[in-house]
Design goal:
9% strand, 286 residues, elongated, 8 strands, alpha+beta, two-stranded antiparallel ribbon
Length: 286
């Protein structure tokens, strides 16, 4: 029984796994990947004030480096990779850092002016960012280094930063390419919702099958354990009968022997009685 159970489970898994992979492919195949950007050399970067986000200013498209990954915005969708020129994968939401970036950073970079303050930014080589980004963030390096290169600049208070984030989020949601992408997501979310129960049903059945069949497998074991308990008194009764039978049969076997002895005694007495008169006759004869 156990072999049959394991066999059915393995067959069901072989059927379910391809179905799940097919369902995932059907959802992700329709999302295009961004075109590759050819860099003649590893790009230099600039850190955005008030953040620890690094941007590539020499590319028309928005490419950022944050927290050990490269991020790219293309046609209302986000992609991320561990490399700046390949390996892009679709990211289903907006990165957490994006609403901290001023949308007009390119103009400020071109004018070297950050909200009315001279911005003496530093172009950081690619290798330095890769080696030091984590330590710079933990040590608050750019805040201590002339406040991101902005002269006489004071960081915004927390309440003002929160309001700016909300405004930028609303502006982002109103972009036409972002709205088109959201409509596509809503249409694709309807399809997996129909397919998911079809794929999950075999898994639920597999989880239920062992629970139903386990007591069926254990029942013979319980019966086997109960059978000797029932048979033991029967065997003991038979043994007791066997022990009692010789005790009853012994007098039965001794009965004919006693009769034979009695008969032999009677015969001997009868013969003796016959011999006595014969001896008396002999005396008379003499």
């Amino acid at each position: 029984m156990k072999k049959l159970l394991y066999g059915t489970i393995l067959l069901a898994l072989l059927i379910v796994v391809p179905l799940t992979t097919m369902a995932q492919v059907s959802v992700q195949v329709n999302i295009p990947l961004p075109p590759l950007i050819i860099f003649p050399a590893p790009p230099s970067m600039v850190v955005i004030p008030d953040t620890y986000v690094y941007v590539v200013p020499d590319v028309q498209e928005e490419i950022f480096f944050y927290n050990g990954r490269w991020w790219r915005h293309w046609e209302g969708r986000w992609y991320r990779s561990y490399y700046y020129d390949r390996g892009w994968a679709y990211y289903s939401s907006v990165p957490i850092f994006y609403f901290d970036i001023d949308p007009g950073w390119r103009g400020y970079y071109r004018d070297r002016n950050w909200h009315g303050h001279r911005w003496s930014y530093e172009r950081i080589p690619y290798r330095q960012v890769q080696q030091n980004w984590k330590g710079w963030k933990n040590n608050r390096h750019w805040e201590k280094q002339d406040t991101w290169g902005v002269q006489n600049y004071q960081p915004r208070p927390h309440n003002q930063i929160k309001e700016l984030r909300q405004q930028r989020q609303q502006q982002y949601q109103q972009r036409p390419e972002v709205q088109r992408h959201q409509q596509q997501i809503q249409e694709k979310q309807k399809q997996p919702q129909v397919q998911k129960p079809q794929v999950q049903q075999p898994r639920e059945q597999l989880q239920r099958q062992p629970q139903v069949q386990k007591p069926q497998v254990q029942q013979p074991k319980e019966q086997q354990q109960r059978q000797p308990q029932i048979r033991e008194p029967q065997e003991q009764q038979q043994k007791g009968q066997k022990q009692r039978q010789p005790q009853v049969r012994e007098p039965q076997e001794q009965g004919p022997r006693g009769q034979q002895q009695r008969q032999s005694q009677e015969k001997s007495q009868h013969q003796q009685s016959k011999e006595k008169p014969e001896r008396g006759d002999e005396g008379h004869r003499k």
